[in-house]
Amino acid sequence: MQEVAVSRSSSWATGGKLAAAVVAVGAVTAGCLFSGVNQTTTGFAYLITVLFIASGWGLTEAIVASVTAMLCYNFFFLPPVGQFTIADPQNWIALGAFLVTAIVASQLSARARNQTTAAIRRQLELERLYALGRSILIGAGDRPAAVRLARHVAQAFELRGVALYDARSGQVYLAGPEDVTIPAEILQRGLAGELDQAENSDCRFAVIRLGTKPAGVLAIRGAVSTTAVDAISSLVAIGLERARAQEIESRAQAARQGEQLKSTLLDAIAHEFKTPLTSIKAATTTVLADEQFTGQYRELLSIVNEETDRLDNLVSDAIQISRIEAGKVTLHRSLVSPNDVIDTVITQMRTRLEDRPVEKNVGAAVSDVYVDRDLIELSLRQLVDNAIKHAPGHTAIRIGAEGRQKDFAFWVTDDGPGIPTGEEEHIFEKFYRGQANRDAVPGSGVGLSVVREIARAHGGDASVASEAGKGSRFVITLPLAREETK
């Protein structure tokens, strides 16, 4: 009903302008008749009137005024006066020239008016686009980004209605005084990448793209040019991308703060553990130093002493891992023997390895390397622990080191079930656990990510080569650094 009323109002306005044009020509005719001016002056008066009408109202009203002026000129001023006939052939030429001049002048004036109107409209659209862009860039709030964007578009362009479909949330967000519906066909084609713009008698539609990927569909009801619709959809895409980037940054910041808090708490708790462990270690060492303390109690106390060492190593590892997870990797490099590093790791893991065969393979030509010994030992313990968890109990675990032309490598090999194709890189991601055994094998999914972080802190990397059913080979590749990097 509202659209019908608007159309009827527009028709009445157009009819009123046409009638006013005829009345204006009539007024000029009456003025020329009463003033007694000659034909030439009357023709110029008509021509000026037509030009004013063309510049003020448009081409249609000017043509109606031109035809009306030609008829009045013929009837009232060209002999025989009072008849729509012309006796002198020269007057036909004059009348034709007047009519052509009036129409051409009307067209030129109307074209200039239209160009001026279009320039003003473009300037207004630019101003509105600027206002929209500014609102999008500085706007913030608790409401979803799509809700704010739809409202900004409706307010900036004074639109009757806006609908914004966000593919990420799968919802349509409305703004403006009128509700707008996006047809299912346009929505489907837009999200499939088969549509950039579309329109019907009711609305204009545009696809919102993030890069080359459709991220939504925008529907606009109101007076907006095609170029402006493109610009609006681009600004909305920028707004969505900005909101998602802010969301990712907020999550990352929260995660970093969580990691720092966890690291601080774990650091404090671990140091609290260190005090009683030191006391237990001192007590057991003192008692075991007494040669008179023998028999079954000595064996039990030796187990306590060994498990104290193991628990102390676990607490130290927990502190290191928490710091690495929080991004606090500090290297304390020194020249170390790869052979000594591997022997230390095997000794520290002796209780876990139990009766499992361990094969050490260090190349004869391997020289000392410039690394952080504690962190490299932590990495190898994580890899050995990973092999213990996944490989059958009767199979061997092989650990070794080799020097190469441009780098150096520690490696751990097992005869476990291997890693499924496609998961080789994912297993180094924090908290990732393999699909096949995430419930069967204990763990948090942190160990391998720590191994890679330590390797990369040294300027190297960690990788795995695996074949389903034939085990895995984890490699820590390190650069051949000879002096500490400042």
Keyword list:
five-stranded mixed sheet; alpha+beta; 486 residues; five-stranded antiparallel sheet; 57% helix; 12 helices; Beta-Lactamase; rod-shaped; Helix Hairpins; disordered N terminus; 4 domains
User: How far is it from the N-terminal to the C-terminal residue, by CA?
Assistant: 77 Å
- Structural Rg: 43 Å
Summed up, the domain count is: 4
Compute the average pLDDT: 77
Helix coverage percent? 55-70%
Question: Can you tell me about this structure?
Answer:
The chain is α+β, with helices and mostly antiparallel strands and 486 residues long. It has helices at 2-35, 39-56, 59-77, 89-138, 145-156, 184-191, 226-289, 296-325, 338-348, 350-353, 373-390, 447-457, and strands at 161-166, 171-175, 197-199, 204-210, 213-221, 334-336, 358-362, 369-371, 397-403, 407-414, 461-466, 472-479. A hairpin with a 3-residue loop joins β9 and β10. The radius of gyration is 43 Å and the shape is rod-shaped. The protein starts with a helix and ends in a 7-residue tail after the last strand.
Topology:
Blueprint: H1 2-35, H2 39-56, H3 59-77, H4 89-138, H5 145-156, E1 161-166, E2 171-175, H6 184-191, E3 197-199, E4 204-210, E5 213-221, H7 226-289, H8 296-325, E6 334-336, H9 338-348, H10 350-353, E7 358-362, E8 369-371, H11 373-390, E9 397-403, E10 407-414, H12 447-457, E11 461-466, E12 472-479
Parallel strand pairs: 7-9
Antiparallel strand pairs: 1-2, 1-5, 3-4, 4-5, 6-8, 9-10, 10-12, 11-12
Helix pairs in contact: 1-2, 1-3, 2-3, 2-4, 3-4, 4-5, 4-7, 5-7, 7-8, 9-11, 11-12
